[in-house]
Amino acid sequence: MSADAKNAMRRDALARRDAMPVTERAADDARIARNFLELGEYCDAGTILLYASFRSEAATLELINRALAGGKRVAVPRVFRAGRMLRFYRIDSPDALRPGYMGIPEPEADFTREIDPCDAGMMVMPGAAFDRTGNRIGYGGGYYDKVLAALCEPGPLLVALARESQIVEAVPAEPHDRRVDMIVTGSEIIRCR
Hints:
Blueprint: H1 3-19, H2 22-37, H3 40-44, E1 47-49, H4 61-69, E2 73-80, E3 85-91, E4 98-99, E5 105-106, E6 114-115, E7 122-125, E8 129-130, E9 136-137, H5 143-150, E10 157-161, E11 182-184, E12 189-191
Parallel strand pairs: 1-2, 1-7, 7-10, 10-11
Antiparallel strand pairs: 2-3, 3-6, 4-5, 8-9, 11-12
């Protein structure tokens, strides 16, 4: 698939996600949260890397709060534009997040609180489109792709949160692309492996 076709798939999936009415989105967020919090893998994970949701992404504030209340270590990514890198920093409260790159909520960069993704039990990530085999299209910046390429084996369980409209027939993938292990939507849990 050409880069233009991949960009068109990304645009279409994000347009469908953005078109979901706010009230439906809130109800979907509640279903996604319930499905996620009931995962045995979530219960077993001591350290979780969670993104701070932005715009029409599946909401993560409740997930962050519940994980912290449950005694889990939670780290959230911060964008470093130089080198196109994401680094994950432990937070004790969502109040520690401030608008960062493109207005996305991020933690302060504090090397004493940095978490190596290989030390996490689970990495939860957003994306534009996913297929049922775990292939994903991100937002085009390559930030998560870089993290995924550098992960140790077996590494954390890779979980995507998505709206049903983001699940597509097939996402183009290269042999080196790392697939997610699981996709959690409001209506189902897709185990990709």
